[in-house]
Amino acid sequence: MRADAERSVRAILEAAEALLAEDPNASMEQIAAAAGVARTTIHRRFASRQALVEELAASAARRLAQAVEDGRPDTAPPLVALHRITANVLQVKSAWGFALGLPAAPGGPADVLHRDIADRCLALFTRARRDGLIDAAADLDWVRRVYYALIGEALHGDTGDTDPDTLAVRVVDSLLYGAAPRP
């Protein structure tokens, strides 16, 4: 895709995220206006509203996958990777909450990426277990689900803080130590 076409698509997706987060019934015309492109441009790039929503979900999932990758889950020490990934994911989820909240079409691009992210998370938790950060008897799928819930609570709970690094510390500490006193 040419650079100007990529910019148009990026502007459309960013506008769609912002508008649909406020009004899930926003029209293609409203999205085009917010993106600063002609209505024909949006229809040329996306055959239907559903195609736009599907690409929005896939684009957000790609951003989330990149946030995980940027945390170096396979090579950084597990605690460092967990903190980096958590802060990165919090940033992406706060910016792309609508798109990431959409149900992924089974077998579609967003679904494949979300499954890969879950697998990467389990691999990181396996490394964390080997380093003694997670109990040897812990069910890692359950730990992953609790981790996801903590991220959701950090984003949507009334914590009074929005700094991704501060929230990442809260999430990681809660995951690894719960409410128990630290040794």
Describe the structure.
The chain is mainly α and 183 residues long. The chain folds into 2 domains: 1-46, Arc Repressor Mutant, subunit A (Orthogonal Bundle), CATH 1.10.10; 58-177, Tetracycline Repressor, domain 2 (Orthogonal Bundle). Helices cover 73% and strands 0% of the residues. It has helices at 3-22, 28-35, 39-45, 49-70, 78-95, 97-101, 109-130, 140-156, 164-177. Helix 2 (28-35) crosses helix 3, helix 4 runs antiparallel to helix 5 and helix 4 runs parallel beside helix 7 (109-130). The longest helix has 22 residues, at 49-70. It is elongated, with a radius of gyration of 18 Å. The termini are far apart. The model has no long low-confidence stretch (mean pLDDT 92). This is AcrR family transcriptional regulator. Residues 27-46 bind DNA.
Question: What does this entry show, briefly?
Answer:
The protein has 183 residues and is mostly helical. The protein has two domains: 1-46, Arc Repressor Mutant, subunit A, CATH 1.10.10; 58-177, Tetracycline Repressor, domain 2, CATH 1.10.357. It has helices at 3-22, 28-35, 39-45, 49-70, 78-95, 97-101, 109-130, 140-156, 164-177.
